[in-house]
From TrEMBL:
Its cofactor is Zn(2+). This is SMP-30/gluconolactonase/LRE family protein. GO terms for biological process: L-ascorbic acid biosynthetic process. It comes from Bradyrhizobium rifense. Belongs to the SMP-30/CGR1 family. The lineage of its organism: Bacteria, Pseudomonadati, Pseudomonadota, Alphaproteobacteria, Hyphomicrobiales. Substrate binds at residues 102, 104. One of its GO terms (molecular function) is gluconolactonase activity. Keywords: Metal-binding, Zinc. A divalent metal cation binds at residues 19, 149, 199. Residues 17-257 form the SMP-30/Gluconolactonase/LRE-like region domain. The active site is at residue 199.
Amino acid sequence: MMEEVPTSVLSAEHCHLGEGPTYDVTTDTAWWFDIREGRLFEAHLGSGTIRIHALGRMASALGRIDAEHQLVVAEDGCYIRSVADGAMTLFCPLEADNPATRSNDCRVHQSGTFWIGTMGRKAERGLGAIYALHRGKISTLFPGISIPNSICFSPDGAIGYFTDTARAVLYAVPLNPATGLPRGEPEVLLRHTGIGGLDGSVCDADGQIWNACWGAGRVDVYSPQGERLRSLRVPARQASCPAFVGADLSHLLVTSAWQDMDAEARAADPQAGCTFLLQASARGRAEPDVKLA
């Protein structure tokens, strides 16, 4: 059954492709992207103030380095961004020589290693990959990915999850908790069936996996064994990615998109692209900082 939990609109700005939400508990600030329009959103939850930053390039995720700096994953590489003035300095290129690809789903492991997904700009089959940025160096983890999503990690850092949305399979892979790097091969945790597809995910403090189901207007909650436990309604059909926010990390921020929707579809889905807050009764976890050295 679909749960109806108290839900509010955090931002009514319609994102072409909302993605990559994260939350800085030290400043009570949520961040997310409109990939297609090259925009970064900054929302101070306590005051309700929202700022939109033009990046001049497509970007999909960020990780906090320290109080003054963030690492932004963009279409051509990873940039160090100054929080104070928004200045961006290239840290390392990533598929910069391949104009057919861009970044997509990413998340920081508890060790400080950043898992980064790339994909074809037209979702070409097998054109993307999942990389690890570990102590400042990038290595390829899983090549031949069409649409990398659902990158997240168990609370102890010993299991990594990811999907290729095109394959409708969520994988679990054993990790070295100290490095966030695989120490075994991925295994199938669950196969998605029915309406929609597996999009972005995040793990809570109990190890449950909260997955935005693209095309179905919901967030599904899975056990570490792959059993679906809950389904929470999102008031936009193309829910894209969740993040835990708030002082007690009990609320769920969910991004959405109007990508590939014609005028008729958008009229039928008037909140497509908005960003929502769900009172999910969750036990979230704070996002770790990226370690570059």
